[in-house]
Specification:
2 copies of one chain form a homodimer. The first copy, chain A, is built from 2 helices and 3 strands; from the N terminus they run βαβαβ. Chain A is α+β, with helices and mostly antiparallel strands. Chain A has one domain: Phosphoribosylformylglycinamidine synthase subunit PurS (Mth169, Chain: A). Chains A and B meet through helix 1, strand 2 and helix 2 of A and helix 1, strand 2 and helix 2 of B. Strand 2 of chain A pairs antiparallel with strand 2 of chain B.
Amino acid sequence: MKARVTVTLKNGILDPQGKAIEGALKSLGVDGIASVRQGKVFDIELAGADAAKAEAALKDAADKLLANTVIENYRVEVLG
Amino acid sequence: MKARVTVTLKNGILDPQGKAIEGALKSLGVDGIASVRQGKVFDIELAGADAAKAEAALKDAADKLLANTVIENYRVEVLG
């Protein structure tokens, strides 16, 4: 079973990495970019075919390791 | 205009970060995870409302900076 966990910064949390990318894009001549915020994406394969069980395992993984839930949100998508 | 650029490793490219996460999840007692591959996601705001122009700017940004196109694929989604 394939799944994707997307981790992004919560609103209001400063993203210095994103700011650096904005600046770099401007100096590379890429126009029209107002703001950039960087996050992480995890493409995960799970054993078994139980979507509910997979979703629970992925939430567990995100809470324990993949996301810092103090400053980050995460979204779990079980793709089947 | 909001858009998202998702950058992931090409198939066949070894992902040591993903391997490390797999091991850590096992030791944290998260079961059923067969494999993990980590990527990047960029949430980008663009000035203007021309979707085609936005898409072109995002491809330019990905080719020049956001992705290493030798080992990474990227996907541009203009969300409107």
